[in-house]
Amino acid sequence: MAQLGGIKLFFLLWAISAAIAYFQFSKPGNPMVLPGDIYIRKMSKVLYIPTGTSFYLAIVLFIIVKFLFKLF
């Protein structure tokens, strides 16, 4: 059972480090656009609707909250 907790912690740390690396190495001036996000740039106007990012964030937050409730 303790090994399962270690695996969860490993994947949590891996996901956090992958997110930090993605932000660190993304091109400056461009927003983080995931598949599913809508990003339209025409002249000086920009339309950005983060549908893919919102979905990904909702899943990650759900997993974190579920993990925290199991701890306490």
Highlighted features:
DUF2905, 2 helices, alpha+beta, transmembrane, single chain, two-stranded antiparallel sheet, 14% strand, 72 residues, elongated
| Largest beta-sheet characterization | 2 strands, antiparallel
Average pLDDT across residues?
79
Shape, per Cα inertia axes: elongated
Number of alpha- plus pi-helical segments? 2
Helix content: 55-70%
Distance between the termini: 16 Å
Query: What string gives the helices and strands in order?
Result: HEEH
Structural class by secondary-structure content: alpha+beta
Strand order of the largest sheet: 1-2
Number of strands: 2
Organism: Candidatus Woesebacteria bacterium RIFCSPHIGHO2_01_FULL_40_22
Keywords: Membrane, Transmembrane, Transmembrane helix
Protein name: DUF2905 domain-containing protein
InterPro entries: DUF2905 (IPR021320)
Q: Can you offer a commentary on this structure?
A:
- The structure is a single chain.
- The protein has about 70 residues and is of the alpha+beta class.
- The chain has one domain (about 1-70).
- The protein has two helices and two strands, in the order H-E-E-H.
- Strands 1-2 form a two-stranded antiparallel sheet.
- Strand 1 (about 40) and strand 2 form a beta hairpin.
- It is elongated and about 55 Å long.
- The two termini are about 15 Å apart.
- About 0% of the residues are buried.
